[in-house]
Design a protein that fits this description.
The structure holds two protein chains of two kinds.
Chain A (H helix, E strand, L loop, with lengths): L3 E8 L8 H12 L4 H22 L1 E8 L3 E8 L7 H4 L9 H4 L8 H8 L2 E6 L5 E8 L1
Antiparallel strand pairs in A: 1-2, 2-3, 3-5, 4-5
Helix pairs in contact in A: 1-2, 2-5
Chain B lengths: L9 E3 L9 H5 L5 E4 L2 E4 L9 H5 L5 E3 L12 E6 L13 H10 L4 E2 L2 H18 L6 E2 L4 H10 L13 H17 L6 E7 L2 H8 L11 E4 H12 L13 H4 L6 H4 L6 E5 L1 H12 L8 E5 L15 H13 L36 H17 L13 H9 L9 H8 L22
Parallel strand pairs in B: 5-6, 5-8, 7-11, 8-9, 10-11
Antiparallel strand pairs in B: 1-4, 2-3
Bound molecules: adenosine-5'-triphosphate, iron/sulfur cluster and magnesium ion (MG).
The site of iron/sulfur cluster (SF4) has 13 residues of chain B, from helix 2.
C-alpha cells in the first residue's frame, strides 16, 4: 500500500513564514487528487497547528502521512506543553500574551477548529515536555 | 470536467522569442516551459494574467484582441469603455470628452462599463445581504482571479459571488438599448469592449459564468488610446454623455469595488502574488471574520492592466482627479432598472483539476512520492536551463513523462563525466563553479 510522507520545519523565529507548511501540503494533496473540501479541512488543521507551534512553543516540526484511506497530520514541538488540555480545547480559551493578541491571534479558536476539521484528534503533552498533536482526516 | 479552454488572448510571438527563461520564473501558475529555443504556454494552466507580457525582455508575448476593422462588420457600433480608459489621460475634464472622442473615431454610441459596474455593485449589496454564501464572499470581477480559483483554490468556489462581469452587464444592456433605438436586429449591432487586459478578452470569448459570449469583440485599450489622443483636444464642449457616477468609475482601481459596499470587514487586494497569499489564508480559515474580498490580479487593479498606457500609479492619480470632481465630475447616477436575475451567472464555476496527477489515487500517490524523491536528487538551483521554472517543476515533468532526467545539465554531466572528468568545474559557467578559475 503506497504511503507518502511529507515533512516540514516550522520556524519559531520567523512569524511571517508561519503558514508555509500548510501551503506546501495543499499543493501536494492537490497533485495527489485529494478532494478540494478534504484539502481545505487539512489546511485548517495544519495552519492552526503551525500557528500554535510558532506562538506558544517557539517552533516545531510537521509531518503528513498520506495513504489511500486517510491523511495523518502530526505537529510536534519542544515547547512548554499544555498544562490543562481540557481547558485548551474549549472555544475562547487562550493564554496568548497581549503582544500576540495585537496581531489578531489568541481568540482561542485554533484547537476547536482543528477538532472540527479532523475526524480524530489526539494530544500528547505535559507541562515542560512539549506537545504532539496528531490529527486524522479520513478520505 | 468542464471543457479545457482553447482560446487564450495571451500568445507567444515565435519570431521574437529568444528562448530565455525570464517568463517561466514569473508565471504564477507555472504554465510556461522552454522547448527547442522557444517558450511554450501550457494552455489549460494559463489564466491570462499578462505577467509574462510584462516581463518578457524581447516583447515576445502579446495580448491578442480583435482588430478595429471588425467594426465594419456591423451597421451600428457601440463602444463599451472600461473606466480604466479615462485614467489614461492627464488633466481630463470629465468622462464626457473621452466618450465624445469614441463617437469621433468610428462608434455610433457608447455605453459605459462603469454603469455596468454600478449594476453589479447594487447586485453585490443584495447578494451580501442574503448571507447564504460562506464567508468571506469573493468578487468575481477579475477573470484571471476567477480562473485561478477554479484551478488552484476549488474549495473557495462557493465563496465567489456568481455575478457576471461589469462589461457583460454593459454589453447586454447596450445591445438591448441600441436595438430599441435603431430598430436594427441584435446581430446588426456590434458591441465592442475596450479592454485594459488580456484576461477580459479571454473571458469575453469564453465566458466564465454565461453560456455564450455577449460582446462582439474586444479592442485593446492601447489601440483605442492611440486613436483617441489626436481627437480629444479638438472636442469643444463635449455633450453630457456620461451617465455613470463616481461609484462605477472607481472600479477602475483596486479598492473601488469594495468602497461601494457596506460591510466594514472588507478587504481589497491587488497583484497576483498578494492575491494568491490571501486566497491561501482564506482556505486556511484565517480570514473567516472578513465579509467581502475584492481581488485584482494586476497591481493597482484594472488601471494596472497590461493593455493600458499610463503607469498605474499615475493612472490612479488621474482617476482620483476625475473622481474628486476638481476638473469636473461625471454626473452622479442611480443604477438603472435591470432585471437582477440576468446579472446572476447562468452557469456554475467548476473545479478544473489541472494539477492533479492522472490515474487512481494509489497511482497518483506513487508518482507523487517519485516526484519528491527526484526533487531531492536535483541540485536545487532552479537555474531554468532545463526549461522548467524550478527543479521541483522539472521533477514533476520528468515523472509525468513530459521531460527527461538528462534535461538537467548537472545530472547529465554527472552521468557523462563521472570520475573521468579531471576537473569537476570544467565547462560550468561561473555561478555554478565550486572554485574560482585562475
Ligand atoms: N503547541 C502548544 N504549546 C503550548 N501551548 C499550546 C500549544 N497549542 C495550544 N496551546 C495552548 O492552548 C491554548 C488554546 O489554543 P488555541 O489554538 O485553541 O487558541 P490560541 O492559539 O490561544 O488562539 P487562536 O488559535 O484562536 O489564535 C493556547 O492559548 C495555549 O495556551
Ligand atoms: S498570462 Fe499569466 S498565467 Fe498565462 S502564461 Fe503568461 S504569466 Fe502564465
Ligand atoms: Mg491557536
Amino acid at each position: 500500500m503506497p504511503e507518502v510522507r511529507l515533512s516540514y520545519d516550522i520556524d519559531g523565529d520567523d512569524f511571517s513564514s508561519a503558514g508555509e507548511a500548510s501551503v506546501a501540503m495543499k499543493k501536494a494533496l492537490r497533485q495527489m487528487g485529494i478532494e478540494p473540501e478534504t484539502i481545505r479541512r487539512c489546511s485548517v488543521c495544519m495552519y492552526e497547528g503551525e500557528m500554535n507551534a510558532v506562538i506558544h512553543a517557539g517552533g516545531g516540526r510537521a509531518e503528513v502521512l498520506v495513504s489511500p484511506e486517510r491523511i495523518k497530520i502530526t505537529i510536534e514541538d519542544d515547547g512548554p506543553g499544555i498544562a490543562d488540555v481540557e481547558a485548551a480545547m474549549r472555544e475562547g480559551y487562550s493564554t496568548a500574551p497581549p503582544r500576540v493578541r495585537e496581531l489578531g491571534f489568541g481568540a482561542g479558536m485554533g484547537l476547536p477548529n482543528m477538532k472540527r476539521c479532523s475526524d480524530e484528534l489526539d494530544i500528547e503533552t505535559a507541562a515542560g515536555r512539549g506537545t504532539k498533536i496528531t490529527m486524522i482526516v479520513r478520505l | 470536467m468542464p471543457d479545457r479552454q482553447i482560446f487564450h488572448s495571451v500568445k507567444l510571438d515565435r519570431d521574437k522569442c529568444r528562448g530565455c527563461t525570464t517568463c517561466i520564473k514569473h508565471c504564477p501558475t507555472e504554465a510556461i516551459r522552454v522547448r527547442r529555443g522557444r517558450a511554450q504556454i501550457i494552455s489549460e494552466r494559463c489564466i491570462d494574467c499578462g505577467i509574462c507580457i510584462r516581463v518578457c525582455p524581447h516583447k515576445a508575448k502579446k495580448a491578442e484582441c480583435d482588430p478595429p476593422e471588425r467594426l465594419g462588420d456591423y451597421k451600428h457600433k457601440v463602444a463599451l469603455p472600461a473606466p480604466s480608459l479615462y485614467a489614461q489621460f492627464r488633466n481630463l475634464d470629465g468622462a464626457d470628452r473621452v466618450l465624445a472622442g469614441l463617437l469621433r473615431i468610428g462608434f455610433d454610441a457608447v455605453w459605459e462599463v462603469s454603469r455596468g459596474a454600478e449594476l453589479i455593485s447594487e447586485a453585490t449589496r443584495r447578494a451580501l445581504a442574503e448571507g447564504s454564501r460562506p464567508r468571506p464572499a469573493i468578487s468575481s470581477a477579475c477573470p484571471a482571479v476567477v480562473r485561478l480559483i477554479c484551478i488552484r483554490f476549488p474549495a473557495l468556489i462557493p465563496n465567489v459571488i456568481d455575478l457576471i462581469a461589469p462589461f457583460e452587464a454593459a454589453a447586454i444592456a447596450a445591445r438591448r438599448e441600441a436595438a430599441e433605438k435603431t430598430g436594427l436586429r441584435p446581430e446588426e449591432i456590434g458591441v465592442f469592449f475596450i479592454t485594459p487586459c488580456p484576461a477580459k478578452v479571454t473571458a469575453a470569448r469564453n465566458p466564465l459564468l454565461l453560456d455564450r459570449p455577449v460582446a462582439d469583440g474586444c479592442l485593446s485599450m492601447t489601440e483605442v488610446y492611440k486613436r483617441l489622443l489626436p481627437v480629444l483636444k479638438d472636442i469643444k464642449d463635449p455633450p453630457p454623455l456620461a451617465r455613470s457616477g463616481a461609484e462605477g468609475i472607481g472600479w477602475a482601481r483596486s479598492g473601488g469595488e469594495t468602497s461601494a459596499l457596506a460591510p466594514d470587514r472588507k478587504l481589497y487586494v491587488d497583484g497576483i502574488e498578494n492575491v494568491i497569499s490571501v486566497l491561501e489564508s482564506v482556505e486556511d480559515g484565517s480570514l473567516s471574520e472578513v465579509d467581502f474580498i475584492e481581488l485584482n490580479a494586476c497591481n493597482q487593479g484594472c488601471i494596472g492592466g497590461c493593455l493600458t498606457v499610463e503607469n498605474p500609479y499615475i493612472a490612479r492619480e488621474n482617476l482620483a482627479g476625475l473622481l474628486r470632481g476638481r476638473k469636473g465630475s461625471a454626473a452622479p447616477a442611480k443604477p438603472e432598472p435591470f432585471a437582477p436575475a440576468s446579472l446572476r451567472g447562468a452557469k456554475k464555476l467548476e473545479y478544473e483539476p489541472i494539477y492533479e496527477i492522472v490515474g487512481d489515487r494509489a497511482e497518483a500517490m506513487e508518482k507523487y512520492a517519485r516526484i519528491e524523491e527526484l526533487r531531492k536528487e536535483l541540485p536545487g538551483l532552479d537555474c531554468g536551463s532545463c526549461g522548467a521554472p524550478s527543479c521541483r517543476a522539472l521533477a514533476e515533468d520528468i515523472v509525468l513523462g513530459k521531460a527527461s532526467e538528462d534535461d538537467c545539465i548537472f545530472r547529465f554531466r554527472e552521468k557523462m563525466g563521472g570520475g573521468a572528468m579531471a576537473n569537476p568545474d570544467e565547462f560550468l559557467p561561473p555561478p555554478f563553479r565550486r572554485e574560482e578559475k585562475e
